[in-house]
Amino acid sequence: MRSLSLRLYGVLTSLAQPLVRRKLRKRAVAEPGYAVAVEERFGQYDAAAVGTGWCWVHAVSLGETRAAGILITELRRQHPGVPILLTHGTATGREEGAKLLEPGDLQVWQPWDTPKAVARFLDRFSPRIGVLMETEVWPEMVAACAQRRIPLVLANARLNERSLASAERLGWLARPAYASLTAVWAQTEADSHRLVSLGAKVEGVYGNLKFDAAPDPRQLAAASQFRAHLPRPLVVLASSRDGEEQLFLDALKHFGAGAPLPPEQPGVHSIARQVASVQWMMVPRHPQRFDEVAALIEANGFPVARRSTAGAPTQEEIWLGDSVGEMTLYYGLADVALLGGSFEAFGGQNLIEGAACGCPMILGPSTFNFAEVAELSLAAGAAVRVQGMTQAITAALALVSDATRRGAMVEAAKAFASTNRGAAQRTAAAVLALAESAEPVASAAEPGALEERAEPSLD
């Protein structure tokens, strides 16, 4: 029987549907992907989208989808032919997820969390197991899966202090949802303690799946070739968020970038000349901001060279990494990377990819989304922390001028990434074990709507 709180929540999410549609229309103006298959978000699916016995993986956005890709690869290694149903909440997540599909797989939007939309989703697809990536816990979906005895797990789970406080404020809704999950596999012990405090059944601390991602060897090879033609060391602000690009540009201008260089004086150290001897680069986190950041660079008096339209930049230009899926290339090119999301109160970004590429990292003060990974990288000597962007530029200049120290950080970064692997194998084994022990779920779709699957199932 549905609780009073869940019934109230269902009424609120149902009433909010017109607002959701309006938000999607607005988002689609800048990101056309939000206009794709809108009705799927409300539980209305194409007639061809059928099947049963799915291993359903939900990855809300880009970062979660990349983690899901690592898990899916391992699931296929352990159980060849496992049928994957992949869902997302954002356009960038769906675009990235399309690259993971193989024949027999299916990709749709996650339904908005209303009783009717969730029921239509589960009726149509009847997953054998559901895997939510990292943070996505929707009360209606959790309750519906529990009622139908569909195992629903939270994998690569993380919960920072800020999110815990938000969940506790809505404890009447959050606690039953976390408690109803079949299993939770946390990234760190700290995440585990916070999740347990909300009633989650944490079955293991498996580490971060992103450690198991191998850098794209083709991109690393391309970076190596490209570096041979770069006349200066390169420093990149990687996966920057709104506001950080302006901080970066202000710091460069503070040190004299873009202004005429002072005359050289024997024995006199000139930081302006140091700044001019470095190739500076920015890679925004979100593709929809590429044009905005290009305009911002020019508005601050700097010429801009875009990866999408230009070759190697000239000394005066700031290079803009306006491509999707090339972070391995950018980290491979960089002598030092400044971690985006950590210089404003965003909680940082995933720094594991940079470490795996052997790129020394400079972290700002805000890394609460990846707190333990950040501390481990600092302890390993793979990263340094500063308190602001001006200090970050100073630290970057010190590193590019000290080949011995930078070389030690390169090796420390690679070792840090390699010694923390193994989460994918553990998580995939746990998912498959639960799926094999679960009772097959009969579909409630229209009679005759589902045909016998030719692909291997989890049965």
UniProtKB/TrEMBL annotation:
Its EC number is 2.4.99.12. Residues 38-213 form the 3-deoxy-D-manno-octulosonic-acid transferase N-terminal domain. SUPFAM superfamilies: UDP-Glycosyltransferase/glycogen phosphorylase. Keywords: Cell membrane, Glycosyltransferase, Lipopolysaccharide biosynthesis, Membrane, Transferase. InterPro entries: Glycos_transf_N, Glycos_transf_N_sf, Kdotransferase. Its main location: membrane. Residues 438-448 have a biased composition (Low complexity). One of its GO terms (molecular function) is Kdo transferase activity. It catalyses: lipid IVA (E. coli) + CMP-3-deoxy-beta-D-manno-octulosonate = alpha-Kdo-(2->6)-lipid IVA (E. coli) + CMP + H(+). Pathway: Bacterial outer membrane biogenesis; LPS core biosynthesis. The keyword Transferase applies. Signal peptide: none annotated. Residues 438-459 are annotated as: Disordered. Pfam families: Glycos_transf_N. It is an enzyme of class 2 (transferase). It comes from the Bacteria. Residues 450-459 have a biased composition (Basic and acidic residues). It is found in: Cell membrane. Involved in lipopolysaccharide (LPS) biosynthesis. Catalyzes the transfer of 3-deoxy-D-manno-octulosonate (Kdo) residue(s) from CMP-Kdo to lipid IV(A), the tetraacyldisaccharide-1,4'-bisphosphate precursor of lipid A. Belongs to the glycosyltransferase group 1 family. This is 3-deoxy-D-manno-octulosonic acid transferase. It comes from Variovorax ginsengisoli.
